[in-house]
């Protein structure tokens, strides 16, 4: 069961507090499924007022970063909290920020081109939605008839056959088209920790899903069912995230 390998973060809260004692807590959060519910229309994944107020309260005590594949501007409009800095490029004087931007910006024209092609190719499949997240594309099929899933995936694969510099991955009822560079949420978190000055410190306690392999902090999975994860703890539903 889920709790056999990933005990409830609520039931073991005192243990988590003990582990964090004397350390600077840094909170990293997903947006979809954590701060907002998973919804059929990705443009309507709004935070509740209660969640926004809770997030604002936490930000007064701990550094917070939202790590998401969504376009930064879109998430900023969803969150609407000036207290949260959400630009992953970090300080402009950072050489790593410059390298990161250069390594991804070369793909922008290609991503825009594939976006336009997919818009055209998926017109024949009702309720399929292509989203341009600037540095990668999302093709949402949550509302698509299950009988059309295979045909939709095949259309995407045929398009990507012409673009070997892009790769296809799958998330929650979504196909994602990304550049073939070694960059994911784990790398993003390491980059953020370094930008915040915490990379080589033993007195930092990051809270997120993907840091277990670093031997730092904890990860908390938000899910009702057991699944493959690097998280140490779990919460069964999104509403528990900020109890």
From TrEMBL:
GO terms for biological process: trehalose biosynthetic process. Pfam families: Trehalose_PPase. Pathway: Glycan biosynthesis; trehalose biosynthesis. One of its GO terms (molecular function) is trehalose-phosphatase activity. It is an enzyme of class 3 (hydrolase). Its EC number is 3.1.3.12. Belongs to the trehalose phosphatase family. InterPro entries: HAD-like_sf, HAD_sf, OTSB-like, Trehalose_PPase. It comes from the Eukaryota. Keywords: Hydrolase. It catalyses: alpha,alpha-trehalose 6-phosphate + H2O = alpha,alpha-trehalose + phosphate. Its cofactor is a divalent metal cation. SUPFAM superfamilies: HAD-like. This is Trehalose 6-phosphate phosphatase. Removes the phosphate from trehalose 6-phosphate to produce free trehalose. Trehalose accumulation in plant may improve abiotic stress tolerance.
């Amino acid at each position: 069961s889920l709790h056999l390998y990933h005990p409830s973060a609520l039931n073991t809260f005192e243990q988590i507090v003990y582990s964090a004692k004397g350390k600077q807590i840094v909170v990293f959060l997903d947006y979809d499924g954590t701060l907002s519910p998973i919804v059929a229309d990705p443009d309507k994944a709004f935070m509740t007022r209660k969640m926004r107020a809770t997030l604002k309260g936490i930000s007064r005590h701990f550094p917070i970063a939202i790590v998401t594949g969504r376009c930064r501007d879109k998430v900023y409009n969803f969150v609407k909290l000036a207290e949260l800095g959400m630009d992953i490029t970090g300080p402009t004087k950072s050489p790593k920020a410059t390298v990161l931007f250069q390594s991804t910006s070369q793909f922008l024209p290609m991503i825009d081109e594939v976006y336009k092609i997919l818009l055209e190719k998926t017109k024949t499949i009702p309720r399929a939605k292509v989203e341009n997240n600037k540095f990668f594309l999302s093709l949402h099929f949550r509302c698509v008839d299950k009988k059309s899933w295979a045909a939709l995936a095949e259309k995407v694969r045929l398009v990507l056959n012409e673009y070997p510099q892009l790769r296809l991955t799958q998330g929650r009822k979504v196909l994602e088209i990304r550049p073939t560079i070694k960059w994911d949420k784990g790398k993003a978190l390491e980059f953020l920790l370094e930008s915040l000055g915490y990379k080589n410190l033993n007195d930092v306690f990051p809270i997120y899903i993907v840091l277990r392999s670093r031997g730092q902090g904890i990860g908390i999975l938000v899910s009702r069912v057991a699944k493959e994860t690097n998280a140490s703890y779990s919460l069964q539903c999104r509403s528990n995230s900020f109890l």
